Amino acid sequence: MxxxxxxxxxxxxxxxxxxxxxKLLLAGGSDINILIKQDKITDxxxxxxxxxxxxxxxxxxxxxxxxxxxxxxxxxxxxGVIRQYCPFLADSLHDxxxxxxxxxxxxxxxxxxxxxxxxxxxxxxxxxARLVLKSLTTTRMLPLTEFYTxxxxxxxxxxxxxxxxxxxxxxxxxxxxxYIKIGSRTALTIAKAALAFVKYDNKFRIAAGSLxxxxxxLYSVEEYLSLHPDDYNDNDLLNALKKDITPITDFRSDKExxxxxxxxxxxxxxxxxxxx
Length: 276
Ligand SMILES: Cc1cc2nc3c(=O)[nH]c(=O)nc-3n(C[C@H](O)[C@H](O)[C@H](O)COP(=O)(O)OP(=O)(O)OC[C@H]3O[C@@H](n4cnc5c(N)ncnc54)[C@H](O)[C@@H]3O)c2cc1C
Description:
It is built from twelve helices and 14 strands. The protein is an alpha+beta fold. It has three domains: 2-48, 2-Layer Sandwich (Uridine Diphospho-n-acetylenolpyruvylglucosamine Reductase, domain 2), CATH 3.30.43; 53-172, Uridine Diphospho-n-acetylenolpyruvylglucosamine Reductase, domain 3, CATH 3.30.465; 174-275, Enolase-like, domain 1 (2-Layer Sandwich). Helix 10 runs antiparallel to helix 11. The protein starts with a strand and ends with a helix. Flavin-adenine dinucleotide binds at residues 24-32, 34, 69, 96-97, 101, 105-106, 108-110, 112-113, 117-119, 161-162, 190.
């Protein structure tokens, strides 16, 4: 294993282009350091990026929030700008890990680690977030809905990194998104299931975590509810949900519980928006 600490973003991008395939970016290290300790990462080239100023900061830019890739979860949940324009994001990250880990876990690290349980991803999916991906020669925008292609598989190219996450304020400001993370405890817990939900103009954006090989939108449910915003039927809703999720049984929970709890919260969110 070889460690690099490039002095600039440009040098980082050059390293990403030049180094052979087995390479990893290191931001907060809360996922990678565990793999190193467990000897699951042994001969990779590791590029440290947390000190690069271009990857930090939270800004309002016209009608969108721009969050630097290496911004920590703690910075996001305490940010005045986020609290003002997207309180849903700040509030929903309140029970992310522990205060200590949230203080060095980064937003892009959470997204790029591609865990099915990544807490930020369902939130960002309902907010219609986009990733800004940069290589030495290109900068491109990718909707988060298109980032994952399978379990731990993404569309990030070998020579690219995430430099920022953009959140249009459309859903965050005009509507009231909701989020539930179901874990074994209220603190320092990994989600057994997570659901983010927003209703807008009788349409819906709904995303789930820990219920598929990566967090994703529930398109069948969204489509069904858009046709039946006020007259949905529980059986049809459940059938749509079953098309969208593939819950598994593992050491955290079982698939029957995951399906049921997701369905219960879906109904709860729907009732709350219908009565408001
Ligand atoms: C005790 C404990 C509790 C945890 N609790 C939670 C929890 O409640 N919820 C949750 O979602 N997660 C949790 N995690 C997981 C972890 O903290 C998060 O996934 C965190 O956000 C990862 O960010 P990082 O900066 O530490 O990533 P790192 O470990 O530095 O990197 C993770 C991955 O992202 C890649 N990466 C990092 N930055 C970039 C970038 N800019 N562009 C492209 N790729 C990049 C790295 O190459 C690596 O593959 C927990 C971890 C621990 C150890």
